[in-house]
Design a protein that fits this description.
The structure holds two protein chains of two kinds. Chain A is α+β, with helices and mostly antiparallel strands. Chain A has 16 helices and twelve strands. Chain B is globular and about 50 Å long. Classes of the chains: A alpha+beta, B alpha/beta.
């Protein structure tokens, strides 16, 4: 009987091809939408994390209290050991020191006199260490506008907006004017290796990226850092894990009476980031939930209609002596086969599409650039995110809804008045 | 063997609830159908022909009275047992053929054998034989959409008799056919009745069928008005 029904299923496209196409399309949409939603939410969080907070950030308690002033005199000391300990104790994250500092950038003319000066917000990141993922985190290879990546301690990258403002190009020299860690006056010459555009609105308006060693030399911060940033290896923020780690670290490593004691902050501890994390979670749940319900109704309805459409065939099989249970079970089996086929194909296509957008993104540059005064770190390109749950989430609408719809339609088999079969089969 | 009863009905009453009361479809019907009979239930619409066919086929239950079909008292059997009785021992022919459009002629005829779990090789032989009886050996791989009305009904007949049932119930089997095809169909059924010893019960008001019947039971207003035995039917071979 299974072979007989399979033959019918394969030949009757309205019973096989059409439902499989609908389920495939629906599951693809579910997978991609949820993947894109997650990716977009994670993009928003990751951009802030890369520039401002990390998934975790270790600073001194005193630095945390005064963080708006970028107080490098309150920076972490003996950072190499701290980083090594973090790597050893929390290997699910990767850790990287940062130095954030501000000052003036002086551009000399051909005589060495000041041609133009402008404020600069500099970030010292680890360009050169083996295993450092800073270039990947900042996506610098993709976001370079001109020049090359830094190769020496004194090489810097400046944003294309700052380069335009100061009228400088890759290959020229600039002088940083600021203060050292000990609040002494500091001047330091850097070479502009290249320019970049983070494509995150106005975030990089005055930004300069320098290697950690260059920043340490300029600020006299040997083996010190403003903060140590930690990121989950997948770069997908897990708020629960981040909060758990923060609490554990602060309980075991931080002394509340020592203002220079290291203190860990999770991404959600940043300015209003907790609200952002909670809102993004709520949006995800609401939108994902609504979308799932809608597609479930569509597929439920398809299962229902498919069952009702075969009223005549079911009647004939009952008249010929097939039991109601057998007919019902065969309808459910068909729905499971159709649902599984559509879901597997849909999941494959959905994952492929999500992966493509994860790698290439969708560019909203024009819209984002219009938000010129926004203080939030906004990405110009939104990326999807392939997460493990995308492997099974499509089965909820694809199989469950289809089978439930068929089960409901199939109940008509049990309610069917056998005495009406001859009459019904006359039409 | 000739006189073995395939169905015995005693004081059958069948009522359907209508509004606050009941509509009586069959009233005090007592009948015996014997093996190899070629019987027609004849009467105007609403006279109870299809209801009687339903009850004999185990598709409906009597309100009162007893019905015994092929040795089973239907008033004491479950839905499952009645389904088994239909599957193993009965064949059905419908006015609208009710062939499954996605299956070939062969596969449509094969369905009752699959339901009865007949081995594939034996199934193959039985289907081919049934199609030979109805003269459709050359249409074995055709789909119903490619057949004429007469060919569709012949396929339905092959499906009804492929598992060699003792009883075939047919509801207006020629109603959708022209005269020539109707006669052809009836000739096939007369032949099967003789060669396979299958009993046929028709519900009909088609004059062309009546000419082939050897027993005509007239129903009117829910009751049997006449039970007529015909020695030499004019429509076909006796």
């Amino acid at each position: 009987m299974i072979r007989f029904l399979t033959k019918g299923l394969l030949r009757d496209r309205s019973r096989s091809l059409f439902p499989v196409l609908v389920i495939t399309l629906t599951v693809t949409l579910v997978i991609f939408s949820i993947g894109f939603l997650k990716g977009t939410m994670n993009s928003l969080l990751l951009d802030t994390a890369v520039i401002l907070t990390g998934h975790e950030k270790v600073v001194t308690r005193a630095y945390h209290e005064e963080s708006q002033l970028m107080p490098n005199d309150l920076a972490l000391l003996e950072v190499d050991q701290l980083v090594a300990d973090l790597h050893q104790n929390y290997p699910e994250f990767f850790w990287s020191p940062r130095i954030k500092f501000a000052g003036l950038l002086d551009v000399p003319d051909e005589n060495g006199e000041t041609k133009i000066q402008g404020p600069v917000l500099a970030v010292g990141i680890d360009f050169f260490s083996d295993g450092s993922r800073e270039i990947e985190l900042w996506e610098l290879e993709r976001l370079m506008v001109s020049g090359r990546l830094p190769e020496h301690r004194d090489d810097v990258l400046i944003s294309s907006k700052l380069a335009d403002q100061l009228n400088v190009k890759a290959g020229e020299s600039v002088t940083f004017i600021g203060s050292t860690m000990d609040n002494a006056f500091s001047t330091y010459n850097f070479n502009i290796a290249g320019t970049f555009n983070l494509r995150k609105g106005q975030t990089d308006k005055q930004m300069m990226l320098v290697d950690l060693s260059g920043a340490r030399a300029a600020l006299d911060m040997e083996n010190a850092a403003s903060a140590i940033f930690g990121f989950i290896h997948s770069l997908y923020y897990d708020d629960e894990a981040a909060v758990m780690l923060r609490d554990e670290y602060n309980e075991t490593h931080s002394d509340s009476l020592d203002i220079f004691s290291p203190f860990m902050l999770a991404l959600r501890d940043g300015n209003q980031m907790g609200t952002m994390v909670d809102i993004s979670g709520a949006i995800m749940a609401i939108m994902g939930g609504i979308f799932l319900v809608v597609v479930m109704v569509v597929l439920w309805n398809m299962g229902l209609m498919n069952g009702l459409r075969r009223y005549g065939e079911v009647g004939l099989r009952l008249a010929l002596g097939e039991s109601k249970g057998q007919v019902y079970r065969s309808m459910i089996s068909e729905a499971v086969i159709i649902g599984l086929t559509g879901t597997v194909i849909g999941t494959g296509i959905g994952l492929a599409l999500t992966y493509y957008v994860q790698e290439n993104g969708i560019d909203y540059t024009k819209g984002i650039e219009a938000l010129s005064n926004s203080s939030m770190v906004m990405p110009n390109v939104f990326y999807a995110q392939v997460t493990p749950d995308l492997l099974y989430i499509g089965f909820v609408p694809g199989v469950l809804a289809t089978v439930l719809g068929t089960m409901l339609a199939g109940l008509a088999v049990y309610k069917r008045e056998m005495a009406q079969l001859f009459k019904e089969l006359e039409t | 063997m000739e006189n073995t009863a395939v169905a015995t009905i005693n004081h059958l009453l069948k009522q359907f609830p209508v509004g606050g009361g009941f509509f009586t479809a069959l009233n005090d019907v007592t009948l015996t159908f014997r093996k190899r009979e070629f019987t027609g239930l004849v009467g105007p619409s609403g006279s109870g022909k299809t209801t009687l066919l339903n009850i004999i086929g185990g598709l409906d239950s009597p309100t009162e009275g007893t019905v015994n079909v092929l040795g089973k008292a239907l008033d004491n059997t479950s839905h499952g047992e009645r389904a088994l009785l239909r599957r193993k021992h009965m064949g059905f022919i419908f006015q609208s053929y009710n062939l499954l459009p996605v299956y070939t002629v062969f596969e449509n005829v094969e369905l009752p054998l699959i339901l009865n779990k007949v081995e594939e090789k034996e199934r193959d032989e039985m289907v081919k034989e049934a199609l030979e009886w109805v003269g459709l050996s050359d249409k074995i791989n055709s789909r119903p959409a490619m057949l004429s009305g007469g060919e569709c009904q012949r396929t339905a007949i092959a499906r009804a008799i492929v598992h060699r049932p003792e009883l075939v119930l047919a509801d207006e089997p020629t109603a959708n056919l022209d005269a020539e095809n109707s006669h052809h169909i009836m000739e096939i059924m007369v032949k099967l009745n003789k060669e396979l010893s299958t009993s046929f019960i028709f519900a009909t008001h088609d004059e062309k069928i009546m000419a082939y019947l050897r027993r005509i039971i007239h129903l009117d207003d829910s009751q049997i008005t006449e039970d007529e035995h015909i020695e030499n039917p004019t429509g076909g071979p006796t």
